[in-house]
Give the backbone structure.
Amino acid sequence: MSGQVRLAGVIGWPVTHSLSPRLHGYWLEKYGVEGSYIALPVRREDFSTAVRSLQREGYRGVSVTVPHKEAAFAIAHRVDRAAKAAGAVNQLLFHEDGAIEGLNTDAIGLAASLREAGVSLDGKPAILLGAGGAARAAVLALTMLGASEIRVLNRDRHRAEVLVSNLSSAIDTDLIPMGLEDWHKIAGDSILVVNTTSAGMKGTPSLDLRLEALPKTATICDIVYNPLETDLLKRARAANLKTVDGLGMLMHQAIPAFKAFFGVEPEVTPALRRELEEALADG
Ligand code: ATR
């Protein structure tokens, strides 16, 4: 392999449907970078062996997706603040001295996507649905957007309490753990709802929340991008609420990764979104 070609990829299982190779491939071509970014299917038990061998092969780093984000956190020699708070890493950078650096760019990706959609919290409360790994990064994003208070609603309230007690010391914003049944108490003044639960995916019913209880100016965001319009977003659109899909977060979380792997700061554009929408439509 020529030393000139910069190598990177996305490591996950399954990874066949990841849009990341298409996304980075689009930027590689657009900016004329001599590089390659491929899908790297790696089973959970093979993660650390795979990382070592990619490092040996001269990879600049890898994006990390399900189910490896916690393992990536564990393998990194140093991590950024977002990764530390989330307990998860979505980008690994391989340095020439052998050090592995872990980043979590999901939070800035989500914050940038919401900002791009015109969402500004500016001292107002927001609702976060879910208390898993994705919710932890979303808490940081909502903090970056200036939420006065983040209402963390989870089916299992105890898990929301655990998330809040784990994150409270790292974050200035008030975090309030709640159950889904508390929705009606707090929907009335919440101008943003971010869904990080997997309800509504893989044939399960979406969360049964009365969206009409939200202010008319509220925005609903779903962080998944496949399907692009989730059942929750469909219902939000029907209720005349503003919606934000998961593609914006995907594009924005990749900016720091592309810059670190390939040395160019790429741009998120409408043409890139169209390219990814096409890829999703092609299956
Ligand atoms: P991730 O790391 O992607 O966030 P996770 O840790 O499995 O994934 O978390 C999934 C989230 O979706 C959890 O908040 C889960 O709620 P519980 O903690 O109560 O299990 C939520 N979730 C999944 N299916 C759900 C459903 N049918 N209704 C409500 N919440 C659901």
